[in-house]
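quick q for whoever's on today - can somebody do inverse folding on this one?? i tried earlier but teh output was garbage lol. tokens:
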């Protein structure tokens, strides 16, 4: 099912990029030899890498079109936008738990699916790529949910703010910066998700 665009309010923000820490205590060691689980991991590692590539392509478009290329130059504007971060701490903490990490990846992908509506408005000439990215995010989220069900893993629900409407950007420049940070944050989110899946594949 399509995710309401209102989830943008949950994630138009900077994921605070904590240094990657060694993952400990993953509960899926007993599944490391499971062929279906390994197939899921390797297939979705490739899928995640593909999505990262599409996000990078859109980041280049934003850089070329709006000359918005360096995050450090836009931090003050980001504050004006009231941006909040997308949680993914369960995937890079020392208390790593696969159920919690999968749940956060699943929920985050659904949220980014919605937030990309703002990028679609910003880059109408690249609608096909943005729509493909939305579809891929939805499909990866569904893959993870299905795998959790197949493994009998419990879905962990984290308290979040209620979904709100898409923010009204006060200017076209703020819309451009908002799109820049959606993509930058999504790229970091995907990098963390990729590392978590890779970690499980190496157990």
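ok took a stab at it. sequence:
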């Amino acid at each position: 099912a399509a995710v309401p665009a209102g989830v943008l309010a949950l994630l138009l923000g900077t994921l605070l990029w904590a240094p990657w820490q060694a993952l400990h205590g993953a509960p899926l060691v007993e599944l490391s030899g499971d062929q279906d689980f390994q197939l899921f991991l390797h297939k979705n590692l490739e899928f995640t890498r593909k999505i990262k590539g599409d996000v990078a392509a859109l980041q280049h478009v934003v850089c070329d079109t709006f000359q918005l290329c360096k995050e450090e130059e836009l931090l003050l504007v980001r504050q004006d936008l009231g941006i909040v971060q997308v949680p993914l701490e369960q995937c890079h903490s020392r208390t790593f738990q696969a159920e919690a990490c999968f749940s956060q990846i699943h929920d985050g992908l659904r949220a980014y699916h919605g937030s990309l509506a703002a990028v679609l408005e910003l880059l109408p000439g690249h609608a096909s790529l943005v729509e493909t990215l939305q579809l891929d995010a939805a499909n990866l989220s569904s893959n993870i949910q299905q795998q959790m069900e197949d493994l009998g893993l419990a879905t962990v629900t984290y308290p979040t703010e209620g979904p709100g409407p898409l923010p009204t950007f006060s200017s076209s420049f703020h819309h451009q910066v908002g799109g820049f940070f959606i993509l930058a944050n999504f790229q970091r989110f995907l990098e963390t998700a990729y590392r978590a899946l890779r970690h499980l594949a190496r157990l």
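fwiw Helices lie at 8-11, 35-66, 75-80, 98-122, 127-151, 172-201. also Residues 122 and 176 are 7 Å apart (CA to CA). so keep that in mind when u check it
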